[in-house]
Amino acid sequence: xxxxxxxxxxxxxxxxxxxxxxxxxxxxxxxxxxxxxxxxxxxxxxxxxxxxxxxxxxxxxxxxxxxxxxxxxxxxxxxxxxxxxxxxxxxxxxxxxxxxxxxxxxxxxxxxxxxxxxxxxxxxxxxxxxxxxxxxxxxxxxxxxxxxxxxxxxxxxxxxxxxxxxxxxxxxxxxxxxxxxxxxxxxxxxxxxxxxxxxxxxxxxxxxxxxxxxxxxxxxxxxxxxxxxxxxxxxxxxxxxxxxxxxxxxxxxxxxxxxxxxxxxxxxxxxxxxxxxxxxxxxxxxxxxxxxxxxxxxxxxxxxxxxxxxxxxxxxxxxxxxxxxxxxxxxxxxxxxxxxxxxxxxxxxxxxxxxxxxxxx
Length: 361
Prior knowledge:
Layout: H1 8-35, E1 38-42, H2 46-57, H3 62-76, E2 96-102, E3 108-114, H4 120-130, E4 135-137, H5 138-147, H6 159-170, E5 181-182, E6 191-192, E7 201-203, E8 208-210, E9 227-232, E10 238-244, E11 265-268, E12 272-278, H7 280-283, H8 288-297, H9 302-316, E13 322-328, E14 333-338, E15 342-347, E16 355-359
Parallel strand pairs: 3-4
Antiparallel strand pairs: 1-9, 1-15, 2-3, 2-10, 5-6, 7-8, 9-10, 11-12, 12-13, 13-14, 15-16
C-alpha cells in the first residue's frame, strides 16, 4: 500500500476494513447455504423431492434439479397419474404433458399430448434448450424427442391403465367429459344435439349469464394429478417443473394446465415460485400461478397470495377441485386448496428428510 502513499495507520485501517468486508461476505454465503437448496412439491412425492434436493445439494442447477425430481416421479408413476402407465383417455391411450421453466431467463419448454415417449420432463427441457419454441405437441413432440436422443417409441399403457379403461367401458363410459351431446349415457359416437339446453340464468347487471357446470364427479386425487415442483438451488436461482398424464378418460387430444406456464407452475427468481394441481380445465382459465407470483411481487406473503388465487377461481366455479403451493425467494412457503385436503412436500438443509405439510380446504 506504500505505492498509494498510505502511512502505517492508513494501512492498518485499510486492513481492518478489508477484514470486515470479508467477514460480511462470508456471513452472507453462510446464511444462503443455510436456506438453500430448497425443494417444494405438490403431494407427498417424497422420493421425487429427495432426488431433486440431492441434485441441488450436489451443485446441479435449479432447472436440472427440477428435471431430476420430476423424472423420479415419472419413473415411480406417482399416484398412477404421472409418467407412463396411467390415466387412459377415451381410446385407452396414455399421453404425457410436461413443462419446465427457468426463473432466471424466464425460458419455458413444454410438451403436450405427447405419445410414445415416457420421459416427459426431459422432453420439455430439450424443447427449452434446443429450440426457440415454448410448446410442442402430439406425435411431432414425440418425433422431436427421439431425434434429440430420448428413448422411444414405446407403449405408454400398462396393465393397470388397460384394466381401468375396460371397466369404464363396461360402465357405458361414465363419467365422461362430454356435455350437450347425444347419446349422453353411452360410449358414443357423440353428436351435437342441435339444441340449446335450458340453463339457469341470473341477472348480474349486464344481462343473463349461464350458470357454471358442476364437475366434482370428474376430479379426485386418483383421477387427475400433477407433480408440480419448485427448486431453489445453492445460488438462489429458482426453477419449476411439472409432469402429468392428464385427466382419466379425457377426450383424445385434450391438453390440461400441466404444460401451460402460469397455470400449473410459474417462477421468477427475483420473486418466488408457484405450483398447482387439480382440475386443469378450470384452473388454466385463471393462470393461478402467474397470479400468485405477481401477488408476491406486490408484497403479499405466500400464504395470502395462494389463498387469493384459489378464492378467485372458487368465486366463479364453487365446485372446482384444486390446490396451490407458493414459495418466495427467501424460502417462505404456504399452500391453499379448495374441494379437497391438499398436501405438499418440502426439503431444506435444516431437515433430515422431506416433510409433508397438510392444508385444509
